[in-house]
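Many introductory courses stop at the sequence. We go one step further.
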Amino acid sequence: MHTFDRIAVSFESREVFVDGELQRISMRALDILELLIEADGGLVTKDQIMRAVWPTTFVVDNNIQVHISALRKLLGGKDGWIKTDPGRGYRLARPRPESVSDTTAPSALASYRTKPLTNAMLVGRDRAVEEILEMVEADPIVTIVGAGGIGKTSVAREVARQYATGLGAQVCVVDLSTEARGATVAQAIAETLGLHRRQDESGLASRLNELSGRYAVLVLDGCDHVIAEAAAVCEALCAEQANVRLIVTAREPLRIAGERVYRLQPLSLPGPEAGEDEILASPAVQLFLRQCGNLGAIACADHASLLCLSSLCRQLDGLPLAIELAAQWAAAIGVDDLLAALDTLILALSNRLRSVPARHETLRASIDWSYGLLTEFERVVLRRLAIMDGAFDLKSACEVISCEEFDATMILGGIVNLVSKSLVVADKGDGASRYYRLTKVTRTFAKEKLDATDEFAWLRHRLEACSFDDRGTHEASMDRPASGVRHPFQYRRQSRMRIARRQIVRRADLSVV
């Protein structure tokens, strides 16, 4: 154990204490502190730090400065234990008693009108938070991308909280999803910062630097309907080289220089054959059970109910919002009955919590938020993809849903856009191949849109005209494999296509009666 006045550091447990209270600090900051302590007052150069802390990654001096700032805050401030040898590196040296700064002095950013960031106690997101933190440490802007209700906001706030803790950085959270469409992103940021006069992007960068004095973390949450303007603001802030880390949440990337994109995945699910221990260890199931427990309900009283819960979470594709809403309903009607009625209820599952964003009140509202931001062509592609039951490849999709007006090349571009906007899921297949699918929530919504058109008859004839081999591709375009052995995934896919055809034919026949 190493002590510095009120600070105690244990490298065995990788923990730092101030006045006996555990402090959050990044692992890389701890690595740098260990180098400084081992040097016993000697100089530790920047090259030494880079080789020891980032042995396989190229980083710039700014990465070191971020962690040094965190250590300075803990060890007495700018006149404390850490001394800088300009242009060379850093060393530890006991400060003069009269020069030790008051690390508890209020920051100039205390006037920021931001929501307090508390420990979110996220379920199944430790790895995601850790990976995004590494991106934030290395790059000025990170965009967390994912489908509506996947938990982008919660993860972004937790990343910002952990990054800011111990760094001396302040956090400003700007909820752009609630801004009127007439307001600008720059105005929304200025309002959140308490700046009443209009600020352009460069003015905001200067203001953030002026107020923070060290580093600030700016979270732009829900950028979907202002994505182009948010991209311009972020690009301008980065160009100003402000001491600002930008964490953005959206359903698609900003697509600007310097952006790092993290695509947030659904919660891990138990497999169909999973035993009780595996089911209970699944983050999706844990979230469901925690939500039920918060409502004072017992979700699974026996093994059969646990199996139903496992199936329910799989049908909800591990989507956190869907799981939380389902848990609220299951607390009232039970898991078994909810699972039995899921096909009918899935879009109507409503949020029973007060003060939730409008786009999270129901699963329908969540998908409708994304749907409303699509172009008319993208809407056509999405609703037609509802005909594909289960996984599909690009060639199959283009073969089925293309037409004279929208040829295969256009359809391909539309699918790519829908993947980028988190409405179509891209899964890895065998080798370098990829397969695509709609989640149950998205497909149910898209089928409703398809029902409201006159395209079913056309799609029926299109499907009847298409013939697919074991790989789900048009049999005229590729030779059949020499081996008659089918990959299980290919077999399931062909079966789903046949089922989809029968459903369309049956439905079309009924519509004639």
